[in-house]
Amino acid sequence: MSTAPTTPPAAPEEAPLLVSTEGAVRVLTLNRPQALNAFTTGLLSQLRLALDDAAHDMNVRAVLITGAGRAFCAGQDLSDPHIKPEFDEHAGAADGDPARKPRAKDIGGLLDHYYIPLALRLRNMPVPTVCAVNGVAAGAGANFALGCDLVLAGQSASFLQAFSKIGLVPDCGGTWLLTRLVGRARAMHLALLGDKLPAAEAQAWGLIARCVADAELQSEAMATAQKLAKLPTHALVQTRHALDASMDLEFEDALKLEARLQSQLGYAHDYLEGAAAFLSKRAPVFKDR
Ligand code: LHQ
Question: Mean pLDDT for the chain?
Answer without folding.
Answer: 93
